[in-house]
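Hey,

The postdoc asked me to send both predictions to you directly instead of through the lab channel. I've kept everything plain text so nothing gets mangled by the mail client. Protein one:
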Amino acid sequence: MAEITAAHQERIHWSGAASQAELDSWQTIAEGVARELAVDVLERDRANEDPHRELQLLRDSGLVNLLDPVEFGGGGAHWETAFLVIRTLARVDASVAQVLAYHFINKSNISFLLPRAEQAEWYRATIDGKWFWGDSVNPVDPNLELTVNADGWRLNGVKHFSTGASVGDRILISAAVTGGTRDGQLVLFVVNADAAGVEPLGDWDALGQRLSASGSVRYTDVRVTESDLLGELTDQPFANLITPGIQLAFANLYLGIAQGALEQARDLTRARRNAWFLSSADLYRNDPFVLRVFGEFVARVDAVEALADRAARRFDSVVALGDKLTFESRGAIEVEIAKVKIVSSEVGVEVTNRVFEATGSSSAKSSVGLDLFWRNIRTHSLHDPVDYKKLEVGAHFLNGEFQPISLYT
């Protein structure tokens, strides 16, 4: 990997902010995909199968290439738009929204790690092939090793929580190098999901996010060459924008889940006729206690949305700095996004849990499927402890401190 030089200053194709026309156009596309996903979302969740057909919908819609450069045939959209798309899909199918979110982040490493002159070949191939990018990057599971051999390296080991790896076209992988000139380096590289020695284990068995294809992958003597490398994992601020990026994607995932739960709960509530026998209301939806619960939830979810939208616009402005980005500026956006992560996690879990209080006992039927929202957010919100996001915000507020750069902070 080349060292950071002046050539890296022209690394990115994102600039400016998303126009309302851009946001509206891509949201319309996402809503169309969401309507198709909604038709059999419960059946697909219960089948617990990898989402091959669902990902084809994303390819056909153009969402798979939303963030890519226009000059190579990509959508040319901004990050604010990508986060809105994730939120829109999560209202219906959070598993598919998660796979797309990881895809956006994984593929963005082309721009975050490579000089502009080296990006064209990667972007042309991924756009023309409509590649989906899964990953095996879980930083708390450092069980992969790249060992030097005559024509490059051989990859061995098992990586857990490899989202999208079993359904994607390419897999972004992190592994430590043993031997040679890169001995001891932790590098990011890309392999073909169909390469010899790549074996998805099919062991994803979670309460929710069942179609996120997040099982383990075993790698056995998988061939890796210099041309597969994107770069070394360092503490260079711009190269590490993937962390605040994925955290904001998570926040929008949780926000979309909460919005979806409220939308279904509203329909269920309006369909009920009789109020509780002790109520003075004529209809169930006019009961003051029901109105109070919905009023509280709508206000809190809308507040999260406002905070998420603000963070998304600021993220685009930070990305546009390229290698001019400082540690302090990166830290500031990470803290900003940590705030959204905190409130989206807590509001989302509470809304998807307590919404049953407003919809009543009949909404707990398995055939209704209102539980899907709670199961999904309860599962994914455990990805990394929200308490440490609170610590991050508190340390900055009280002491002006930023957490060290990592794949979680």
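Protein two:
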Amino acid sequence: MRSSLTRRGLLAAGSGLVAAAAVPALSGCSSLAAADSDPETLVIHTQLGTTAPGSPTYLAALDRFREENPGLGVKNLINGDDLGQVYETSRLARKEADVVMVNLYDKTLAWTDVDATVDVRGYLDDWGLRERVLPAALSAWTDDRDRLRAFPYFATNWPVAYNRTLLDRAGVDAIPTTGDELIAAARKLRAKGIAPVTVGGNDWTGQKLLAQIIQTFLTQEEARHAYTTGDFGSRGARAGIEYFTTLRDAGVFADKAQGLTSDSMTTQFNTQAAAVQSAMSSALAKIPADVVRHTEVGGWPVAEGAAHSRPTVIRAFTLIGFWISPNGVRKIEHVEKFLRFMYRPDTVARFVTEAGRDMALRTDTVSTGFPLVAAAQRLGSDVSQVLLPDVYVPPSATQPLITATSTSFTRGTSPARVRAALESAYRSA
């Protein structure tokens, strides 16, 4: 897979990274002066620290780490969705942070290839931390050249949340497990003025649900091929697209879903304006207690002839990892202290109990304060797992796929046009 970074000329493999005239100006960004050259200061670049789930726990953990290591300075840099761009810009100036906490998605897929970050497999083994990591997480973070891109940390379950009270009010007796049952439930909900399935059809949440539904008729190998190559012409992919458009045009999704975002989706479900949402575990953890009490989790209903015999969910282990930069290699003894601290069972347990996070690490701690997160973990054989496409989609196709998603959620768009929009996202890459 060639990197979009390489194509843009921002990063170059072989000789490390080189500056280019195409580097965008980032207003308000201090990344170019972010990394501390002091060898006794560890610089961490993270998305945790604002409203992201787990931020208070992370900041408290950082305070404990400072207390336990009084001679070591710690600088914490925080960015949101622009972290990838900010990090790349700072790396071009050789002023990048020592450790980066971010998911495996879009830009970050190329970082190890272009020497923006280093293979951490040797460190994982040398520090005796391999046994702390779930085997599936190690596999997910390993690239096709057997390099471990980062130390795995957060995972996620992505089930479907059903508001039992709203379903009962509409006369829906059971959680839908088939497409026909879902369509029938949607009609009853609409008759009561309740939106059926809310989804951010204009952002990543819609993209993930669309991918999940398309995979109804695909094996994992077939799904991997489709999302790696952008070829949605197989019989299974076409059947999945047709299944999606059938559900859409039957009124299963909330009105004007093509314009909704993840924020509007969660607002609709959390305020009980909608009965169903596809919700990753961090979203489940934020559902209000009065809604949690009558919410059940399950999978996405399947159709006759599906490749899956049970409703589907997405499970992924690539939500947040600890990446080590070339600057971090120069302070590797400090990085080791930090990673050992973050991998400690007591630190991991607090993310589970305080923030309801799913972890890519072994832990016996249960999310007792987040019952829907725990319920999703217990689904087990009641559901079938489909792929999270993020690690297969070429970085340059990621944003075009969001546009294709909005087109797909627009009622009346034919299956052929949905397929064309998806494949066009890859051709424009």
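Summary for protein two, as requested: The chain has two domains: 4-157+316-367, 160-278+394-427.

Thanks,
C.
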